[in-house]
Amino acid sequence: MLDILTLLNIIDMEMEVNIMKQNKLIIVESPSKAKTIASYLDNEYKVISSKGHIRDLATTGKDGLGIDIENRFQPNYRIIKKQESVVNTLKKEAKNRQVLIATDDDREGEAIGWHIAEILDLDLSEKNRIVFREITKSAIIESLNEPRKIDQDLVNSQEARRILDRIIGFKLSKLLQSKIKSKSAGRVQSVALKLISDLEKEIQAFIPETYYEIEAKFPKFTAHYVIPAKQRLSKVEADTIVSGSTNPFVVKDVKSRVSRRKAKPALKTSTLQQEAFNFLSMSSGRTMMVAQKLYEGVQVENEFIGLITYMRTDSTRLANTFIYSALDFIEKTYGEKYKGFYQTKNTGKTQDAHEAIRPTSLKRTPELMKPYLTKDEYRLYNFIFYRTLSSLMSDAQYTVTKVTLDAQNYLYELEGSILKFAGHREAFAEQKIKDTPLPKLELNQQIDADEVIAIEKVTLPPARYSEATLIKTLEANGIGRPSTYASIIKTLRGRDYVELDRATRRFKPTEQGMLTTQELEAFFDPIINVNYTSKMEKQLDEISEQSVSGVQIVGDFYNKFIPLIEHAQKHMKKIPPKETGELCPECGRPLVYRKSKYGEFVACSGFPQCKYVQPNEYQTKTTKKTKAKK
User: Which of 14, 224, 356, 504, by CA, is between 20 and 30 Å from 290?
Assistant: First the structure.
Protein backbone atom coordinates (compact mmCIF):
# COMPACT_ATOMS: atom_id res chain seq x y z
CA MET A 1 0.00 0.00 0.00
CA LEU A 2 1.09 3.57 -0.67
CA ASP A 3 1.99 5.68 2.35
CA ILE A 4 0.22 9.00 2.95
CA LEU A 5 3.16 11.13 1.77
CA THR A 6 3.42 9.29 -1.55
CA LEU A 7 -0.34 9.56 -2.08
CA LEU A 8 -0.29 13.32 -1.44
CA ASN A 9 2.59 13.73 -3.91
CA ILE A 10 0.61 11.85 -6.56
CA ILE A 11 -2.44 14.08 -5.95
CA ASP A 12 -0.27 17.22 -6.22
CA MET A 13 1.20 15.98 -9.49
CA GLU A 14 -2.26 15.30 -10.89
CA MET A 15 -3.41 18.79 -9.90
CA GLU A 16 -0.38 20.34 -11.62
CA VAL A 17 -1.11 18.34 -14.78
CA ASN A 18 -4.77 19.48 -14.71
CA ILE A 19 -3.71 23.11 -14.28
CA MET A 20 -1.30 22.81 -17.19
CA LYS A 21 -4.10 21.38 -19.31
CA GLN A 22 -6.24 24.46 -18.60
CA ASN A 23 -4.60 26.56 -21.31
CA LYS A 24 -7.77 28.48 -22.15
CA LEU A 25 -9.47 30.98 -19.86
CA ILE A 26 -13.15 31.93 -20.15
CA ILE A 27 -14.25 35.08 -18.32
CA VAL A 28 -17.91 35.71 -17.46
CA GLU A 29 -19.55 38.24 -15.10
CA SER A 30 -21.29 35.96 -12.64
CA PRO A 31 -19.76 33.33 -10.33
CA SER A 32 -22.85 31.13 -10.64
CA LYS A 33 -22.68 31.36 -14.44
CA ALA A 34 -19.00 30.43 -14.29
CA LYS A 35 -19.86 27.38 -12.20
CA THR A 36 -22.52 26.21 -14.68
CA ILE A 37 -20.32 26.70 -17.74
CA ALA A 38 -17.32 25.01 -16.11
CA SER A 39 -19.43 21.91 -15.50
CA TYR A 40 -19.90 21.54 -19.30
CA LEU A 41 -16.23 21.78 -20.30
CA ASP A 42 -13.18 19.57 -19.98
CA ASN A 43 -9.85 20.40 -18.35
CA GLU A 44 -8.73 22.46 -21.33
CA TYR A 45 -10.79 25.39 -20.00
CA LYS A 46 -10.81 27.34 -16.79
CA VAL A 47 -13.87 29.54 -16.18
CA ILE A 48 -13.71 32.53 -13.82
CA SER A 49 -15.88 35.55 -13.05
CA SER A 50 -15.26 39.29 -13.18
CA LYS A 51 -18.16 39.75 -10.72
CA GLY A 52 -19.71 42.42 -12.92
CA HIS A 53 -18.13 45.74 -13.95
CA ILE A 54 -14.43 46.12 -13.17
CA ARG A 55 -13.99 49.75 -14.28
CA ASP A 56 -16.03 52.92 -14.21
CA LEU A 57 -15.57 56.59 -14.90
CA ALA A 58 -13.23 58.27 -12.43
CA THR A 59 -14.52 61.02 -10.14
CA THR A 60 -11.63 63.34 -10.92
CA GLY A 61 -11.23 66.17 -13.40
CA LYS A 62 -13.65 69.02 -14.06
CA ASP A 63 -16.66 68.75 -11.72
CA GLY A 64 -15.54 65.22 -10.82
CA LEU A 65 -17.07 63.86 -14.03
CA GLY A 66 -14.15 61.67 -15.04
CA ILE A 67 -14.53 63.08 -18.56
CA ASP A 68 -12.16 65.35 -20.50
CA ILE A 69 -14.71 67.85 -21.80
CA GLU A 70 -12.18 69.77 -23.92
CA ASN A 71 -10.80 66.60 -25.53
CA ARG A 72 -13.90 65.26 -27.31
CA PHE A 73 -15.38 64.01 -24.03
CA GLN A 74 -12.63 61.44 -23.59
CA PRO A 75 -13.56 59.18 -20.64
CA ASN A 76 -11.09 58.55 -17.82
CA TYR A 77 -11.66 55.05 -16.46
CA ARG A 78 -10.54 53.72 -13.10
CA ILE A 79 -10.70 50.24 -11.63
CA ILE A 80 -13.58 50.07 -9.14
CA LYS A 81 -12.00 49.91 -5.70
CA LYS A 82 -13.85 46.82 -4.50
CA GLN A 83 -12.86 45.07 -7.75
CA GLU A 84 -9.09 45.55 -7.39
CA SER A 85 -8.53 42.04 -6.05
CA VAL A 86 -10.72 40.62 -8.84
CA VAL A 87 -8.64 42.45 -11.45
CA ASN A 88 -5.43 41.09 -9.93
CA THR A 89 -6.90 37.58 -10.15
CA LEU A 90 -7.93 38.11 -13.79
CA LYS A 91 -4.42 39.24 -14.70
CA LYS A 92 -2.84 36.32 -12.86
CA GLU A 93 -5.13 33.72 -14.43
CA ALA A 94 -4.75 35.21 -17.93
CA LYS A 95 -0.98 34.73 -18.01
CA ASN A 96 0.11 32.21 -20.65
CA ARG A 97 -3.52 31.39 -21.48
CA GLN A 98 -5.77 32.10 -24.42
CA VAL A 99 -8.50 34.38 -23.08
CA LEU A 100 -12.12 34.16 -24.25
CA ILE A 101 -14.56 36.80 -23.00
CA ALA A 102 -18.07 35.44 -22.46
CA THR A 103 -19.91 38.36 -20.89
CA ASP A 104 -23.62 38.86 -21.59
CA ASP A 105 -24.70 39.30 -25.19
CA ASP A 106 -25.94 42.90 -24.99
CA ARG A 107 -24.49 46.41 -24.91
CA GLU A 108 -23.73 46.26 -21.21
CA GLY A 109 -22.04 42.88 -21.55
CA GLU A 110 -20.05 44.05 -24.57
CA ALA A 111 -18.80 47.06 -22.59
CA ILE A 112 -17.80 44.88 -19.62
CA GLY A 113 -15.97 42.58 -22.06
CA TRP A 114 -14.13 45.53 -23.61
CA HIS A 115 -12.99 46.77 -20.19
CA ILE A 116 -11.70 43.28 -19.36
CA ALA A 117 -9.85 43.15 -22.70
CA GLU A 118 -8.33 46.56 -21.98
CA ILE A 119 -6.96 45.69 -18.53
CA LEU A 120 -5.65 42.35 -19.83
CA ASP A 121 -4.08 44.10 -22.85
CA LEU A 122 -5.82 41.75 -25.29
CA ASP A 123 -5.62 42.32 -29.02
CA LEU A 124 -9.02 43.71 -30.02
CA SER A 125 -8.47 42.66 -33.63
CA GLU A 126 -8.50 39.01 -32.56
CA LYS A 127 -11.59 36.85 -32.18
CA ASN A 128 -11.56 36.55 -28.40
CA ARG A 129 -15.29 37.11 -27.75
CA ILE A 130 -17.85 34.33 -27.48
CA VAL A 131 -21.61 34.80 -27.06
CA PHE A 132 -24.53 32.56 -26.22
CA ARG A 133 -28.15 33.19 -25.32
CA GLU A 134 -28.72 30.16 -23.18
CA ILE A 135 -26.42 28.36 -20.77
CA THR A 136 -26.63 24.81 -22.01
CA LYS A 137 -23.79 22.52 -23.04
CA SER A 138 -24.69 22.62 -26.74
CA ALA A 139 -24.91 26.44 -26.76
CA ILE A 140 -21.55 26.82 -25.01
CA ILE A 141 -19.79 24.39 -27.35
CA GLU A 142 -21.31 26.15 -30.37
CA SER A 143 -20.11 29.55 -29.12
CA LEU A 144 -16.56 28.21 -28.68
CA ASN A 145 -16.59 27.18 -32.33
CA GLU A 146 -17.74 30.64 -33.45
CA PRO A 147 -15.68 33.30 -31.63
CA ARG A 148 -15.85 36.89 -32.88
CA LYS A 149 -14.21 40.25 -32.23
CA ILE A 150 -15.50 42.60 -29.56
CA ASP A 151 -18.12 44.80 -31.20
CA GLN A 152 -16.69 48.30 -30.80
CA ASP A 153 -19.91 49.92 -32.05
CA LEU A 154 -21.86 48.36 -29.17
CA VAL A 155 -19.13 49.50 -26.78
CA ASN A 156 -19.30 53.06 -28.16
CA SER A 157 -23.08 53.09 -27.72
CA GLN A 158 -22.81 52.00 -24.09
CA GLU A 159 -19.96 54.43 -23.44
CA ALA A 160 -21.97 57.40 -24.74
CA ARG A 161 -24.90 56.31 -22.58
CA ARG A 162 -22.65 56.12 -19.50
CA ILE A 163 -21.08 59.53 -20.19
CA LEU A 164 -24.49 61.17 -20.60
CA ASP A 165 -25.77 59.58 -17.41
CA ARG A 166 -22.66 60.75 -15.53
CA ILE A 167 -22.99 64.34 -16.76
CA ILE A 168 -26.69 64.55 -15.89
CA GLY A 169 -26.44 62.51 -12.72
CA PHE A 170 -23.54 64.43 -11.20
CA LYS A 171 -24.38 67.99 -12.20
CA LEU A 172 -28.16 67.84 -11.90
CA SER A 173 -28.14 65.80 -8.69
CA LYS A 174 -25.68 68.20 -7.08
CA LEU A 175 -27.86 71.15 -8.04
CA LEU A 176 -31.06 69.61 -6.64
CA GLN A 177 -29.33 68.52 -3.45
CA SER A 178 -28.11 72.06 -2.76
CA LYS A 179 -31.33 73.83 -3.77
CA ILE A 180 -34.29 71.66 -2.77
CA LYS A 181 -32.73 68.75 -0.82
CA SER A 182 -33.68 66.16 -3.46
CA LYS A 183 -31.31 63.22 -3.48
CA SER A 184 -30.72 62.66 -7.19
CA ALA A 185 -31.83 63.19 -10.77
CA GLY A 186 -31.21 61.24 -13.94
CA ARG A 187 -31.81 61.11 -17.69
CA VAL A 188 -34.47 58.37 -17.40
CA GLN A 189 -35.23 58.39 -13.69
CA SER A 190 -36.49 61.98 -13.76
CA VAL A 191 -38.75 61.37 -16.77
CA ALA A 192 -40.26 58.34 -15.04
CA LEU A 193 -40.91 60.54 -12.00
CA LYS A 194 -42.45 63.18 -14.27
CA LEU A 195 -44.91 60.62 -15.66
CA ILE A 196 -45.99 59.70 -12.13
CA SER A 197 -46.20 63.35 -11.01
CA ASP A 198 -48.10 64.49 -14.11
CA LEU A 199 -50.64 61.73 -13.59
CA GLU A 200 -51.04 62.83 -9.97
CA LYS A 201 -51.81 66.36 -11.16
CA GLU A 202 -54.55 64.93 -13.40
CA ILE A 203 -55.99 63.01 -10.47
CA GLN A 204 -55.96 66.09 -8.23
CA ALA A 205 -57.60 68.22 -10.91
CA PHE A 206 -60.21 65.60 -11.76
CA ILE A 207 -63.85 66.62 -11.24
CA PRO A 208 -66.19 63.61 -11.01
CA GLU A 209 -69.35 63.58 -13.06
CA THR A 210 -72.54 61.68 -12.36
CA TYR A 211 -74.13 59.68 -15.16
CA TYR A 212 -76.59 56.80 -15.50
CA GLU A 213 -76.78 53.36 -17.03
CA ILE A 214 -80.00 51.39 -17.44
CA GLU A 215 -80.62 47.69 -16.88
CA ALA A 216 -83.64 45.57 -17.69
CA LYS A 217 -83.76 42.58 -15.35
CA PHE A 218 -85.33 39.31 -16.49
CA PRO A 219 -85.66 36.05 -14.52
CA LYS A 220 -82.53 34.46 -16.08
CA PHE A 221 -80.51 37.37 -17.47
CA THR A 222 -79.97 41.12 -17.49
CA ALA A 223 -80.01 43.33 -20.60
CA HIS A 224 -78.30 46.71 -20.86
CA TYR A 225 -79.69 49.79 -22.57
CA VAL A 226 -77.64 50.67 -25.69
CA ILE A 227 -76.09 54.09 -25.10
CA PRO A 228 -74.67 55.81 -28.20
CA ALA A 229 -70.87 55.99 -28.25
CA LYS A 230 -69.25 58.88 -26.32
CA GLN A 231 -72.53 59.83 -24.67
CA ARG A 232 -73.56 59.79 -21.01
CA LEU A 233 -77.14 59.79 -19.81
CA SER A 234 -78.36 62.46 -17.41
CA LYS A 235 -80.88 61.76 -14.65
CA VAL A 236 -83.70 63.26 -16.73
CA GLU A 237 -82.77 61.21 -19.81
CA ALA A 238 -82.45 58.03 -17.77
CA ASP A 239 -85.85 58.54 -16.09
CA THR A 240 -87.50 59.11 -19.48
CA ILE A 241 -86.01 55.88 -20.88
CA VAL A 242 -86.94 53.84 -17.79
CA SER A 243 -90.55 55.04 -17.84
CA GLY A 244 -90.79 54.44 -21.60
CA SER A 245 -89.31 50.91 -21.54
CA THR A 246 -92.50 49.00 -20.86
CA ASN A 247 -93.31 45.34 -21.39
CA PRO A 248 -93.33 43.43 -23.56
CA PHE A 249 -89.69 43.42 -24.77
CA VAL A 250 -89.43 42.04 -28.30
CA VAL A 251 -86.45 40.03 -29.56
CA LYS A 252 -85.38 42.15 -32.51
CA ASP A 253 -82.13 40.40 -33.44
CA VAL A 254 -80.17 37.25 -32.52
CA LYS A 255 -76.65 36.83 -33.90
CA SER A 256 -74.14 34.10 -33.16
CA ARG A 257 -70.56 34.03 -34.34
CA VAL A 258 -67.31 32.24 -33.58
CA SER A 259 -64.74 34.52 -31.95
CA ARG A 260 -61.06 33.59 -32.07
CA ARG A 261 -58.55 34.73 -29.47
CA LYS A 262 -54.93 34.41 -30.42
CA ALA A 263 -52.24 33.49 -27.94
CA LYS A 264 -49.95 36.23 -26.76
CA PRO A 265 -46.44 36.19 -28.21
CA ALA A 266 -43.53 34.79 -26.21
CA LEU A 267 -42.14 36.96 -23.42
CA LYS A 268 -39.56 39.71 -23.71
CA THR A 269 -38.02 41.61 -20.79
CA SER A 270 -40.73 44.24 -20.44
CA THR A 271 -43.67 41.84 -20.75
CA LEU A 272 -42.02 39.39 -18.36
CA GLN A 273 -41.84 42.14 -15.73
CA GLN A 274 -45.37 43.38 -16.40
CA GLU A 275 -47.05 40.02 -16.35
CA ALA A 276 -45.07 38.58 -13.45
CA PHE A 277 -46.31 41.59 -11.50
CA ASN A 278 -49.92 41.16 -12.64
CA PHE A 279 -50.26 37.40 -12.34
CA LEU A 280 -47.55 36.33 -9.86
CA SER A 281 -47.49 39.47 -7.68
CA MET A 282 -43.72 39.66 -8.13
CA SER A 283 -41.98 43.04 -8.29
CA SER A 284 -39.86 43.83 -11.33
CA GLY A 285 -36.72 43.64 -9.21
CA ARG A 286 -37.63 40.25 -7.80
CA THR A 287 -38.65 38.97 -11.23
CA MET A 288 -35.30 39.88 -12.79
CA MET A 289 -33.38 38.41 -9.87
CA VAL A 290 -35.19 35.08 -10.12
CA ALA A 291 -34.94 35.06 -13.93
CA GLN A 292 -31.18 35.67 -13.65
CA LYS A 293 -30.87 32.58 -11.48
CA LEU A 294 -32.91 30.47 -13.91
CA TYR A 295 -30.69 31.70 -16.75
CA GLU A 296 -27.37 31.19 -15.02
CA GLY A 297 -28.22 27.71 -13.87
CA VAL A 298 -29.67 25.68 -11.02
CA GLN A 299 -28.36 22.41 -9.69
CA VAL A 300 -30.37 19.45 -10.98
CA GLU A 301 -29.06 16.33 -9.30
CA ASN A 302 -25.33 16.33 -10.14
CA GLU A 303 -25.19 19.05 -12.80
CA PHE A 304 -25.89 22.74 -13.22
CA ILE A 305 -28.42 23.60 -15.93
CA GLY A 306 -29.56 26.93 -17.35
CA LEU A 307 -33.33 26.62 -17.57
CA ILE A 308 -34.22 29.72 -19.60
CA THR A 309 -32.63 31.79 -22.36
CA TYR A 310 -31.19 35.26 -21.75
CA MET A 311 -33.75 37.35 -19.90
CA ARG A 312 -32.70 40.77 -21.29
CA THR A 313 -34.23 40.94 -24.74
CA ASP A 314 -36.47 43.21 -26.79
CA SER A 315 -37.50 40.39 -29.10
CA THR A 316 -40.39 37.93 -29.20
CA ARG A 317 -38.62 35.86 -31.87
CA LEU A 318 -38.14 32.13 -31.32
CA ALA A 319 -35.46 30.00 -32.96
CA ASN A 320 -36.65 27.60 -35.64
CA THR A 321 -35.12 24.63 -33.81
CA PHE A 322 -37.16 25.49 -30.73
CA ILE A 323 -40.34 26.01 -32.76
CA TYR A 324 -40.05 22.57 -34.34
CA SER A 325 -39.47 20.89 -30.99
CA ALA A 326 -42.34 22.86 -29.41
CA LEU A 327 -44.81 21.92 -32.15
CA ASP A 328 -43.82 18.28 -31.72
CA PHE A 329 -44.28 18.61 -27.94
CA ILE A 330 -47.71 20.23 -28.42
CA GLU A 331 -48.87 17.48 -30.77
CA LYS A 332 -47.76 14.70 -28.42
CA THR A 333 -49.10 16.37 -25.28
CA TYR A 334 -52.33 18.00 -26.48
CA GLY A 335 -53.05 16.73 -29.99
CA GLU A 336 -52.60 17.80 -33.60
CA LYS A 337 -55.41 20.39 -33.57
CA TYR A 338 -53.66 22.35 -30.79
CA LYS A 339 -50.66 23.14 -32.98
CA GLY A 340 -50.59 26.80 -34.01
CA PHE A 341 -48.12 28.87 -35.96
CA TYR A 342 -45.23 31.15 -35.16
CA GLN A 343 -46.04 34.79 -34.52
CA THR A 344 -43.94 37.77 -33.52
CA LYS A 345 -44.68 41.41 -32.81
CA ASN A 346 -41.21 42.91 -33.06
CA THR A 347 -41.42 46.54 -34.07
CA GLY A 348 -38.72 49.06 -34.88
CA LYS A 349 -35.14 48.20 -34.08
CA THR A 350 -34.95 45.48 -31.45
CA GLN A 351 -32.02 43.42 -30.29
CA ASP A 352 -33.25 40.75 -32.65
CA ALA A 353 -30.13 38.64 -32.37
CA HIS A 354 -31.72 37.61 -29.10
CA GLU A 355 -34.66 35.30 -28.87
CA ALA A 356 -37.64 35.74 -26.63
CA ILE A 357 -37.34 34.45 -23.07
CA ARG A 358 -38.06 30.75 -23.34
CA PRO A 359 -37.17 27.43 -21.69
CA THR A 360 -33.90 25.96 -22.94
CA SER A 361 -35.50 22.53 -23.24
CA LEU A 362 -39.12 21.41 -23.20
CA LYS A 363 -37.97 18.10 -21.73
CA ARG A 364 -37.34 19.95 -18.46
CA THR A 365 -40.97 20.58 -17.60
CA PRO A 366 -41.81 22.66 -14.53
CA GLU A 367 -43.23 19.54 -12.88
CA LEU A 368 -39.91 17.70 -13.29
CA MET A 369 -37.85 20.71 -12.16
CA LYS A 370 -40.01 21.61 -9.14
CA PRO A 371 -37.94 19.61 -6.58
CA TYR A 372 -34.83 21.61 -7.55
CA LEU A 373 -36.37 25.08 -7.48
CA THR A 374 -37.40 27.54 -4.79
CA LYS A 375 -41.03 28.59 -4.67
CA ASP A 376 -40.48 31.77 -6.72
CA GLU A 377 -38.14 30.02 -9.16
CA TYR A 378 -40.78 27.38 -9.81
CA ARG A 379 -43.59 29.91 -10.20
CA LEU A 380 -41.63 32.03 -12.69
CA TYR A 381 -40.26 29.04 -14.61
CA ASN A 382 -43.75 27.55 -14.84
CA PHE A 383 -45.05 30.90 -16.15
CA ILE A 384 -42.28 31.22 -18.78
CA PHE A 385 -42.54 27.56 -19.85
CA TYR A 386 -46.28 27.45 -20.52
CA ARG A 387 -46.54 31.04 -21.80
CA THR A 388 -43.89 30.20 -24.42
CA LEU A 389 -45.60 26.93 -25.31
CA SER A 390 -49.00 28.60 -25.65
CA SER A 391 -47.57 31.22 -28.04
CA LEU A 392 -47.19 28.41 -30.60
CA MET A 393 -50.64 26.90 -30.07
CA SER A 394 -53.88 27.34 -31.98
CA ASP A 395 -56.48 30.02 -31.30
CA ALA A 396 -59.05 29.63 -28.55
CA GLN A 397 -62.56 29.66 -30.04
CA TYR A 398 -65.72 30.99 -28.45
CA THR A 399 -69.32 30.93 -29.59
CA VAL A 400 -70.53 34.47 -28.96
CA THR A 401 -74.25 35.26 -29.09
CA LYS A 402 -75.63 38.81 -29.05
CA VAL A 403 -79.34 39.48 -28.60
CA THR A 404 -81.02 42.84 -29.19
CA LEU A 405 -84.33 43.61 -27.43
CA ASP A 406 -86.78 46.36 -28.36
CA ALA A 407 -88.97 48.01 -25.71
CA GLN A 408 -91.08 50.68 -27.39
CA ASN A 409 -88.11 51.66 -29.63
CA TYR A 410 -85.66 51.64 -26.75
CA LEU A 411 -82.92 49.08 -27.56
CA TYR A 412 -81.27 46.75 -25.04
CA GLU A 413 -78.52 44.18 -25.58
CA LEU A 414 -77.21 41.10 -23.85
CA GLU A 415 -74.27 38.95 -24.83
CA GLY A 416 -73.24 35.43 -23.93
CA SER A 417 -70.05 33.49 -24.61
CA ILE A 418 -69.26 29.76 -24.46
CA LEU A 419 -65.81 28.22 -24.94
CA LYS A 420 -65.94 26.06 -28.06
CA PHE A 421 -62.26 25.04 -28.32
CA ALA A 422 -59.61 25.82 -25.69
CA GLY A 423 -56.62 26.03 -28.06
CA HIS A 424 -53.70 27.76 -26.35
CA ARG A 425 -55.70 28.08 -23.13
CA GLU A 426 -55.35 24.33 -22.67
CA ALA A 427 -51.69 24.92 -21.77
CA PHE A 428 -51.77 28.43 -20.35
CA ALA A 429 -54.68 30.55 -19.20
CA GLU A 430 -53.63 33.69 -17.33
CA GLN A 431 -57.22 34.39 -16.32
CA LYS A 432 -60.16 32.09 -15.84
CA ILE A 433 -63.03 33.01 -18.13
CA LYS A 434 -66.40 31.57 -17.19
CA ASP A 435 -68.96 30.60 -19.80
CA THR A 436 -71.95 32.96 -19.89
CA PRO A 437 -74.65 31.01 -21.73
CA LEU A 438 -77.90 32.69 -22.76
CA PRO A 439 -81.38 31.16 -22.64
CA LYS A 440 -82.80 30.19 -26.01
CA LEU A 441 -84.42 33.26 -27.53
CA GLU A 442 -86.10 33.44 -30.93
CA LEU A 443 -86.67 36.33 -33.30
CA ASN A 444 -89.86 38.35 -32.52
CA GLN A 445 -90.33 36.49 -29.23
CA GLN A 446 -91.98 38.64 -26.56
CA ILE A 447 -90.69 38.55 -22.96
CA ASP A 448 -91.49 40.59 -19.87
CA ALA A 449 -88.87 42.26 -17.69
CA ASP A 450 -89.20 42.06 -13.92
CA GLU A 451 -88.01 45.64 -13.63
CA VAL A 452 -86.10 48.38 -15.48
CA ILE A 453 -83.82 50.48 -13.33
CA ALA A 454 -81.44 53.39 -13.74
CA ILE A 455 -78.09 52.91 -12.01
CA GLU A 456 -76.20 55.97 -10.88
CA LYS A 457 -72.51 55.98 -11.79
CA VAL A 458 -69.69 58.41 -11.09
CA THR A 459 -66.71 58.94 -13.39
CA LEU A 460 -63.43 57.93 -11.81
CA PRO A 461 -60.05 59.65 -12.03
CA PRO A 462 -57.30 57.85 -13.97
CA ALA A 463 -55.64 55.06 -11.99
CA ARG A 464 -52.15 55.66 -10.64
CA TYR A 465 -49.28 53.68 -12.10
CA SER A 466 -48.50 50.22 -10.87
CA GLU A 467 -45.11 48.70 -11.68
CA ALA A 468 -46.69 46.94 -14.66
CA THR A 469 -48.42 50.01 -16.12
CA LEU A 470 -45.39 52.25 -15.52
CA ILE A 471 -43.14 49.77 -17.35
CA LYS A 472 -45.67 49.52 -20.17
CA THR A 473 -45.77 53.33 -20.49
CA LEU A 474 -41.99 53.68 -20.40
CA GLU A 475 -41.62 51.09 -23.15
CA ALA A 476 -44.44 52.57 -25.26
CA ASN A 477 -42.71 55.96 -25.13
CA GLY A 478 -39.23 54.56 -25.84
CA ILE A 479 -37.84 55.69 -22.49
CA GLY A 480 -34.91 53.74 -21.07
CA ARG A 481 -34.12 50.08 -21.71
CA PRO A 482 -36.32 47.23 -20.43
CA SER A 483 -33.33 45.85 -18.50
CA THR A 484 -33.16 49.11 -16.50
CA TYR A 485 -36.83 49.40 -15.52
CA ALA A 486 -36.42 47.50 -12.25
CA SER A 487 -33.51 49.72 -11.15
CA ILE A 488 -35.41 52.89 -12.14
CA ILE A 489 -38.33 51.89 -9.92
CA LYS A 490 -35.98 50.94 -7.09
CA THR A 491 -34.28 54.34 -7.34
CA LEU A 492 -37.55 56.30 -7.28
CA ARG A 493 -38.60 54.48 -4.11
CA GLY A 494 -35.16 54.67 -2.54
CA ARG A 495 -34.95 58.42 -3.07
CA ASP A 496 -38.35 58.88 -1.39
CA TYR A 497 -39.82 60.33 -4.58
CA VAL A 498 -42.71 57.87 -4.65
CA GLU A 499 -44.50 55.72 -2.13
CA LEU A 500 -46.35 52.47 -2.74
CA ASP A 501 -49.96 52.08 -1.69
CA ARG A 502 -49.93 48.52 -0.36
CA ALA A 503 -53.67 48.05 -0.91
CA THR A 504 -53.71 49.04 -4.59
CA ARG A 505 -50.01 48.31 -5.34
CA ARG A 506 -49.79 51.66 -7.10
CA PHE A 507 -47.34 54.56 -6.88
CA LYS A 508 -48.11 57.96 -5.47
CA PRO A 509 -45.52 60.73 -5.67
CA THR A 510 -44.37 62.14 -2.35
CA GLU A 511 -44.26 65.87 -1.64
CA GLN A 512 -40.52 65.77 -2.43
CA GLY A 513 -41.21 63.91 -5.66
CA MET A 514 -43.74 66.52 -6.78
CA LEU A 515 -41.35 69.34 -5.84
CA THR A 516 -38.53 67.70 -7.80
CA THR A 517 -40.68 67.40 -10.93
CA GLN A 518 -41.89 70.99 -10.48
CA GLU A 519 -38.37 72.42 -10.39
CA LEU A 520 -37.13 70.22 -13.23
CA GLU A 521 -40.07 71.38 -15.37
CA ALA A 522 -39.33 75.00 -14.55
CA PHE A 523 -35.63 74.86 -15.41
CA PHE A 524 -34.94 71.73 -17.48
CA ASP A 525 -38.07 71.11 -19.52
CA PRO A 526 -36.15 71.13 -22.86
CA ILE A 527 -34.29 67.94 -21.85
CA ILE A 528 -36.29 66.30 -19.03
CA ASN A 529 -39.34 65.32 -21.04
CA VAL A 530 -40.73 62.27 -22.78
CA ASN A 531 -40.03 63.31 -26.38
CA TYR A 532 -36.42 64.41 -25.84
CA THR A 533 -35.56 61.35 -23.78
CA SER A 534 -37.13 59.02 -26.35
CA LYS A 535 -35.21 60.73 -29.17
CA MET A 536 -31.99 60.43 -27.18
CA GLU A 537 -32.62 56.71 -26.63
CA LYS A 538 -32.97 56.19 -30.39
CA GLN A 539 -29.77 58.12 -31.08
CA LEU A 540 -27.85 56.04 -28.54
CA ASP A 541 -29.07 52.90 -30.33
CA GLU A 542 -28.00 54.37 -33.66
CA ILE A 543 -24.42 54.67 -32.42
CA SER A 544 -24.22 50.87 -32.39
CA GLU A 545 -25.35 50.90 -36.02
CA GLN A 546 -22.71 53.52 -37.00
CA SER A 547 -25.54 55.87 -38.01
CA VAL A 548 -24.40 58.69 -35.71
CA SER A 549 -21.32 59.67 -33.73
CA GLY A 550 -21.31 59.23 -29.96
CA VAL A 551 -19.10 62.30 -29.55
CA GLN A 552 -21.56 64.38 -31.56
CA ILE A 553 -24.54 63.21 -29.50
CA VAL A 554 -22.77 63.87 -26.20
CA GLY A 555 -21.50 67.24 -27.46
CA ASP A 556 -24.93 68.38 -28.66
CA PHE A 557 -26.45 67.42 -25.33
CA TYR A 558 -23.69 69.07 -23.28
CA ASN A 559 -23.99 72.35 -25.16
CA LYS A 560 -27.74 72.36 -24.52
CA PHE A 561 -27.50 71.20 -20.91
CA ILE A 562 -24.80 73.48 -19.45
CA PRO A 563 -26.65 76.80 -20.07
CA LEU A 564 -29.71 75.30 -18.33
CA ILE A 565 -27.58 74.29 -15.34
CA GLU A 566 -25.99 77.74 -15.13
CA HIS A 567 -29.39 79.44 -15.33
CA ALA A 568 -30.83 77.15 -12.61
CA GLN A 569 -27.86 77.75 -10.33
CA LYS A 570 -28.61 81.47 -10.45
CA HIS A 571 -32.40 81.44 -10.37
CA MET A 572 -33.66 78.26 -8.66
CA LYS A 573 -34.72 79.20 -5.14
CA LYS A 574 -32.94 77.45 -2.30
CA ILE A 575 -35.35 75.95 0.20
CA PRO A 576 -34.18 76.58 3.76
CA PRO A 577 -34.31 73.69 6.24
CA LYS A 578 -37.51 73.43 8.27
CA GLU A 579 -37.30 74.87 11.78
CA THR A 580 -38.24 72.73 14.81
CA GLY A 581 -39.53 75.65 16.87
CA GLU A 582 -36.70 75.26 19.39
CA LEU A 583 -33.48 77.23 19.87
CA CYS A 584 -29.92 75.95 19.90
CA PRO A 585 -28.73 75.52 23.52
CA GLU A 586 -25.22 76.62 22.52
CA CYS A 587 -25.76 79.74 20.38
CA GLY A 588 -29.46 80.56 20.52
CA ARG A 589 -30.11 80.22 16.78
CA PRO A 590 -33.15 78.20 15.58
CA LEU A 591 -32.79 74.43 15.44
CA VAL A 592 -33.66 72.86 12.08
CA TYR A 593 -34.31 69.44 10.60
CA ARG A 594 -31.51 68.13 8.41
CA LYS A 595 -31.05 64.91 6.47
CA SER A 596 -28.13 62.57 5.99
CA LYS A 597 -27.67 59.02 4.76
CA TYR A 598 -28.53 57.89 8.31
CA GLY A 599 -31.87 59.69 8.25
CA GLU A 600 -33.30 62.92 9.64
CA PHE A 601 -31.67 64.71 12.58
CA VAL A 602 -31.89 68.05 14.37
CA ALA A 603 -29.02 70.54 14.28
CA CYS A 604 -28.25 74.22 14.61
CA SER A 605 -29.16 76.49 11.69
CA GLY A 606 -25.90 78.34 12.31
CA PHE A 607 -23.73 75.56 10.84
CA PRO A 608 -20.80 75.69 10.13
CA GLN A 609 -20.19 78.40 12.76
CA CYS A 610 -22.12 76.34 15.30
CA LYS A 611 -21.81 72.55 15.05
CA TYR A 612 -24.42 71.59 17.62
CA VAL A 613 -26.33 68.36 16.84
CA GLN A 614 -29.18 67.22 19.07
CA PRO A 615 -28.29 63.83 20.59
CA ASN A 616 -30.21 61.03 18.91
CA GLU A 617 -29.72 57.82 16.98
CA TYR A 618 -27.94 59.73 14.20
CA GLN A 619 -25.29 61.08 16.58
CA THR A 620 -24.78 57.62 18.07
CA LYS A 621 -24.19 56.12 14.60
CA THR A 622 -21.78 58.85 13.49
CA THR A 623 -19.88 58.66 16.77
CA LYS A 624 -19.49 54.89 16.39
CA LYS A 625 -18.35 55.37 12.79
CA THR A 626 -15.74 57.98 13.84
CA LYS A 627 -14.41 55.70 16.57
CA ALA A 628 -14.22 52.78 14.16
CA LYS A 629 -12.12 54.86 11.72
CA LYS A 630 -9.72 55.83 14.49
Answer: 504
